[in-house]
Amino acid sequence: MYSVDSSGYRLSPLNIKDPLLRAELFREIRFAQEDRKYRGEEWGYYVIQPSDVLSADLIAWKVYGVDTLKWVILAASGLEDPREALTAGQRIFLPTTLWIRERIKYYSAMESA
User: Fold this and answer.
1) Which pLDDT score, from 0 to 100, does residue 7 have?
2) Do 103 and 28 touch, CB atoms closer than 8 A?
């Protein structure tokens, strides 16, 4: 669905040092699941398959081409603990890597302001 030109580490939420600002990024992704106004037109969706329920990293690989974006899958599915099972049949809306990069830059800039 979306591709990443690098290993994906530039898209790590840990690039946002402030945990409260990082939580805002996660919250944005979670809100986008329920309300279309929080997601862009370019967002896609993925339906979690029974074989995916314990593999957020596998879904990240299928969607983005890197497993390091499993945090996006977990945020979209409403999970905080990567050991929790995803819900088979759940449709999750996923942002593009461009959206992720722009939001990480936005929150990182807020830290230095």
Assistant:
1) 53
2) yes
Domain boundaries, the chain: 9-112
**Measured in Å, how far apart are the chain's first and last C-alpha atoms?**
35
Tokens of 100: 């992720």
* Sequential DSSP letters for 14-74: GGS--HHHHHHHHHHHHHHHH-GGGS-TT-EEEEPPGGGTT-HHHHHHHHHS-GGGHHHHH
- Is this structure's pTM higher than 0.85? yes
Backbone dihedral region for residue 93 (phi beyond 0: left; psi -120 to 50: alpha; all else: beta): beta
Query: What are phi and psi for residue 51, nearest 5 degrees?
Result: -75, -10
Extract the tokens encoding 88: 């088979």
Give the residue with greater pLDDT, 41 vs 29: 29
